[in-house]
Design a protein that fits this description.
This protein is mainly α. Helix 2 packs across helix 3. It is globular, with a radius of gyration of 12 Å. The chain starts with 6 loop residues before the first helix and ends with a helix.
């Protein structure tokens, strides 16, 4: 995520990353297993959970793999 982003955007990305991490852990999946299910790289999952932002297509893939709704990951 660019350093010139406002603080509120950085915080929102961190919160979203935390939600993804919590949902993954609730599903008893490792980052590697989630990466396999979504066909994303493990480093992509790691960056998302670290709060570096997420593309919508990745968000949809993650929600599908975790059997949750997209809003559950962004609220």
């Amino acid at each position: 995520m660019p350093d010139d982003q406002p603080e509120w955007i950085r915080l929102a990305c961190q919160q979203q990353g935390s939600r993804v991490c919590q949902a993954r852990e609730h599903a008893s999946l490792t980052q590697e297993k989630l990466a396999e299910r979504t066909e994303l790289g493990r480093s992509t999952i790691q960056r998302i959970e670290a709060g570096e932002g997420i593309e919508y297509a990745h968000l949809v893939a993650i929600a599908h793999a975790l059997d949750v709704e997209v809003p559950d990951l962004v609220q």
